[in-house]
TrEMBL record:
InterPro entries: Hexapep, Hexapep_transf_CS, Trans_hexapeptide_repeat, Trimer_LpxA-like_sf. This is Acetyltransferase-like isoleucine patch superfamily enzyme. PROSITE patterns: HEXAPEP_TRANSFERASES. Keywords: Repeat, Transferase. One of its GO terms (molecular function) is transferase activity. It holds the Pfam family Hexapep_2.
Amino acid sequence: MNLDHLYGTVSMGQGSAVGEHCTLGYPKEARIRAFREDPATAEAGEPVGIGDRCMLFNQVIVYEGVSIADGCLVEDRVRIGYDSRVGPGSRIVYGAYICDRVSIGAEARIAGFVCDATRIGDRCTVMGDLVHEYTRPHVDWWDADEESPRVEDDSVVGYGARVVGGIRIGPRSYVAAGAVVTRDVPPEHIATGVNTLTPIRDWTGTRLRALIEHWTSPRPPAASR
């Protein structure tokens, strides 16, 4: 079954580069299924937009309807699902699996697994997994849409951490490596272990001292326009 005519068109900004064995504009599953049942339904997918000065390395898969803003870098073997958005200056790290309808803000660093419809703010780092609760395995795969995590600006999810369900992290909160979080992490808190939350003002460790000082330092006034 040839799917070439189902792909979304791709527009590429100035100074952008794409590596070897990349797939851009791949059709979403629902349209492939519809085409298999009735080839007369075939039509081009939603367009893909890649901004200026972007780099997509090797074996990257970008589905239809994806928008990648200026100055982004997408490392090898990344998957970005349909209708997802990646903000300017963001980096998607080797092997990241970005599901469908995900929104990623500016200057973010994303690795690991990010479930459907997750929202990630500006300047976030996500090295762990953001997943649904998956409480309805008895229904059809596409009928089991659940609430997704939301990671607010300047927050961090450490390596091997797992954030489960429709909870909110931050802003300016830190989920430590290996932690498991199933409830909201308020602004300026650190999550360790299983749902153990500590306000940053009470944190006595030394490893996050520089980050906490950065978060709590007075911000320079915004330049007038």
